[in-house]
Amino acid sequence: MDLTLATVAALLRSTLTAPRETAARLLALDPPDDARWLGFVIVVVLSVLVGQASILVLGESAFGGSLIFMAVFQTMVLLGLVVAVQGIGRLAGGSGTFPDTLLLLAWLQFVMIAVQIVQILVLLLVPPLFGFVTMASLAIFMWLLVNFTMALHGFTSALKVTVGIVFAFFGLAVVLAIVLAILGLGPQGV
C-alpha cells in the first residue's frame, strides 16, 4: 500500500464519506498480522502524543501527565474495544476475526486522532465552536464504529448495530467502573 500523504488523506476522506466501503477496502488489503499490530502500536503512540498536545492546550491532565500511564491506558482502552467489537459481534452472529478487528479499529483510531487535531486547532483559533466540534467528533466516532462493525461482521442493520454498541458501551462502562474502584482509581472524595 502506498502511504504517501495524498493517499492517506484520500483514505481519510473516503472513510468519512463511505466508511463501510473503505472498511471493506482496508480488509481486502489483508496485511500480515505484524503490520496490523504495528499499526495498533503506532496509533497508540500518536494518541499519547496528541493527548499530550491537548493537555498543553487545556493545561490539565487526568493522568498526572505520565506518558507511560497514558500509553498503558490508551493501549488497554483500544485493545478492550477491539476485543469487545470482535467478541460481541461474533456472539451476535457476525463473522469478523480478531486480526480484521484490530486493523479496522487501529484505522478508526487514526481517523479519530485526525479529528482530535482539528479539535485542538478549533480550540486555539475559534474557541466558541469547540463544543460543537466535540459533539461532531462523537457523532463521527459512532458513525464510523457502526459502519466498520457492519463491514467487519457482515451485519446489514445499522439500527441494530447502533443499539448493540450503545448497550455494550453501558455494560463495559459498568465493568470498567468496578475495576477502577477495585484498583482504587475512582473519583477522589467528595
TrEMBL record:
Chain ranges of the Yip1 domain: 15-177
Query: What compartments host this protein?
Result: Membrane
Question: What are the protein's UniProt keywords?
Answer: Membrane, Transmembrane, Transmembrane helix
Keyword Glycoprotein listed? no
Q: What is its main location?
A: membrane
Tell me where the transmembrane regions lie. 37-58, 67-89, 101-125, 132-155, 161-185
How this chain sits in the membrane, per its record, is: Multi-pass membrane protein
Protein's name according to its UniProt entry: YIP1 family protein
Q: What is the lineage of its organism?
A: Bacteria, Pseudomonadati, Pseudomonadota, Alphaproteobacteria, Rhodobacterales
